[in-house]
Amino acid sequence: MILAIDGMGGDHAPKSVIDGAMLALNELPNLKIKLYGHKEKLNPFLTEHERLEVIHCEEVIEGEDDPARSIRRKKDASMTKMLEAVTDGSADACLSAGNTGALMAGGLFKVGRIEGVSRPALATTLPTIDGQGFLMLDLGANADAKPENIVQYAIMGNIYAKQVRGIEKPRVGLLNIGTEDKKGNELTKSVFGLLKEADLHFIGNVEARDLLNNVADVVVTDGFTGNMVLKSIEGTAGAMMAMLKEAFMSSGKTKIGALLMKNELKKLKTKLDYSEHGGAALFGLQAPVIKAHGSSNARAIYSAIRQAAIMAEHNVTEVIKTKIADSNKQQGD
């Protein structure tokens, strides 16, 4: 299995990317990595490995670059070359912690959509109190969505939950403003009816306040709503950890308590960090394309690499192709 990685993408690149890649090579014996980036910047952090190939690239797509334009114009950028490796079949999947918009644009322009998928979706596994996590999509690939788009998100999310997360019968929920069947706007009401008829374990509407209580294994919504929920969870988790730190540092007595609870606080921080589950996957493309968080450390990069490897190993893309084709055929009938 060959994974193409953008070595220059992310806030802590290339060190965190290389450290994560080396960790993955040591942990995953069947993995080979093609690392794309400027060799002079990569070399200080590189260690030779028989399953690591470094490909020199002169350019880098920066965070402030225009997404579509940078993919078209920066032909020798690490992200561009990484995507081309998937397109030409020299890699099975790819990963970047760089410019999200450029990666999504490149995924569409270079990797291409699966036939029958109207709009790809951005999905990631978010934390729950019990540590199981849940998959949510769309998280911002498309601000607007039609009912049939969200049904496809549910089908793709269901496949991922089965193939990658190992859930035999994933519970699929529709994010809404209430759990009653008739709740919501015209979009959610239409989606609700379609999901009830789909070949899924659809559990109905779910509310945002219940997401972290493991109310569902897969939660679907439009990209505008999904992105706001993602940012809210991320911001709340960060604020809660900051408040805990402030409380524990407020006096000598609380500092002693913090010292005694050091391990438990680390576990709590890890549980709230969704990057522990991997990156965000672009569902609906011809090959796995993974977006790692821009601030990813080596462990988060490793988690995203492992996620990409599992997707490739379990042929998630091919299963999605089959299921989408079957679903479209049924709708046509």
Automatic annotation (TrEMBL):
Any GO CC annotation of this UniProt entry: cytoplasm
InterPro entries according to UniProt: FA_synthesis, Phospholipid_synth_PlsX-like
Predominant location: cytoplasm
An MF annotation (GO) of this entry: phosphate:acyl-[acyl carrier protein] acyltransferase activity
EC annotation from Swiss-Prot or TrEMBL: 2.3.1.274
Pathway(s) served: Lipid metabolism; phospholipid metabolism
Catalytic reaction annotation: a fatty acyl-[ACP] + phosphate = an acyl phosphate + holo-[ACP]
Subcellular location: Cytoplasm
Protein keywords: Acyltransferase, Cytoplasm, Lipid biosynthesis, Lipid metabolism, Phospholipid biosynthesis, Phospholipid metabolism, Transferase
BP GO terms, sorted: fatty acid biosynthetic process; phospholipid biosynthetic process
Classification via Pfam families: FA_synthesis
HAMAP family given in the database record: PlsX
Binding partners and assembly: Homodimer. Probably interacts with PlsY.
Function: Catalyzes the reversible formation of acyl-phosphate (acyl-PO(4)) from acyl-[acyl-carrier-protein] (acyl-ACP). This enzyme utilizes acyl-ACP as fatty acyl donor, but not acyl-CoA.
Family, similarity comment: Belongs to the PlsX family.
Protein name (Swiss-Prot/TrEMBL): Phosphate acyltransferase
